[in-house]
Structure to design on (182 residues):
């Protein structure tokens, strides 16, 4: 990897440490020698699951306070300290939907907002599902839905699906249907 654009950290000022994220302001030296500041959100990482059941994608609708609206999303959640990625994906699937899977495999990993956050999201495919009882966190209120690919695409067009992880999952599912590969 070429580091010709590397910004060297001169100083880090912690601003906030919460349950999920922390915020810091770094003073950096730029490649041209100038100094700048960077506001950085630190995040433990997350998993998300494209769960396919009877040729439909399982999604949950939930209210998102930063947006002041509800969104339809694939099951997802943050990583617990030291947790294996696949274990986290299986845990989130059960917690939010009640479904378990005999076949969970990785699709890809991506940074959600690299301009200001270090969060990395690991997207998984879950197939061969068995229904069970959801166990959402005490502060999670979710409605479960099952969407065909066409319905998911319509939800994107309507703005009901607007988050990157779910849009990426819908397009991965489309490729999977067309090619048989994920």
């Amino acid at each position: 990897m070429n580091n010709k654009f590397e910004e060297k950290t001169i100083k880090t000022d912690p601003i906030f440490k919460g349950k999920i994220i922390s915020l810091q302001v770094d003073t950096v030296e730029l490649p041209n020698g100038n100094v700048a500041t960077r506001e950085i959100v630190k995040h433990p990482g997350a998993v998300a699951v494209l769960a396919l059941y009877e040729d439909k994608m399982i999604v949950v609708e939930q209210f998102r306070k930063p947006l002041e609206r509800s969104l339809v999303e694939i099951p997802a959640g943050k990583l617990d300290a030291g947790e294996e990625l696949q274990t986290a994906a299986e845990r989130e699937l059960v917690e939010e939907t009640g479904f378990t899977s005999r076949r969970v495999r990785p699709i890809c990993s991506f940074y959600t907002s690299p301009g200001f956050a270090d969060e990395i999201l690991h997207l998984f495919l879950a197939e061969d599902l068995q229904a069970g009882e959801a166990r959402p966190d005490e502060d999670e209120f979710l409605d479960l839905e099952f969407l065909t690919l066409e319905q998911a695409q319509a939800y994107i067009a309507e703005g009901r699906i607007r988050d990157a992880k779910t849009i990426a999952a819908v397009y991965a599912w489309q490729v999977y249907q067309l090619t048989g590969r994920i």
Summary: The first helix runs from residue 85 to 97. Residues 46-179 form a domain with the Nucleoside Triphosphate Pyrophosphohydrolase fold (CATH 3.90.79.10). The first strand starts at residue 8 and ends at 17.
